[in-house]
Amino acid sequence: MSIDKSMNVLIVDDYKTMLRIIRNLLKQIEFNNVEEATDGAEALAKLRSGSFGLVISDWNMAPMTGLQLLQEVRADAKLKTTPFIMITAESKTENVVAAKQAGVSNYIVKPFNAETLREKIEKVLGNA
Question: Pairing relation of β-strands 54-58 and 34-37?
Fold first, then answer.
């Protein structure tokens, strides 16, 4: 199973420090084409105008949450098959269920390391 590490990855978080952490973890696992968005609206605009192989989004954002972003992506004919990994601080069952129902590809609970990120990405992209 080979994963195209040159694909564009969009990371979405309203916390700049977290964007930097995720970017560094992606770099460790050789994903270097990474773009950032600090909210759901910006993320949607980038997704609609670009070509991304993967979205990694935080759950807790304002004004648009990661779940709402996911719902928008899944409702968009052009974007609906885009792999989407959600990052959440707490693995509450209702969150997991809501994300699954909305069509999340996988999710990661904070804190996490490069190895966890790699495993989740391989799971998501390896099934494609």
Answer: unpaired
- Total domains in the chain come to 1
Q: Judge whether 3 lies within some domain.
A: no
Look at residue 2 and tell me if it is in a domain: no
Note whether 82 and 73 are within 8 A (CB). Answer: yes
Q: Which helix (H) or strand (E) holds 75?
A: helix 66-75
Per-residue pLDDT tens over the stretch 118-127: 999 999 998 5
By residue range, what is the domain housing residue 107?
A: 9-126
Give the pLDDT score at 14: 95
pLDDT reported for residue 100: 95
What is the Cα–Cα distance from 118 to 116, expressed in whole angstroms? 5
Other Cβ atoms within 10 Å of 18 Cβ, number:
15
Structural domain includes residue 4: no
Burial class (CB in 10 A: 0-12, 13-18, 19+), 115: exposed
- Give the per-residue pLDDT at 108: 94
In CATH, what number is assigned to the domain containing residue 55? 3.40.50.2300
CA angle, 54 as apex, 7 and 8 as ends, to 5°? 30
Structure tokens at 15: 């916390």
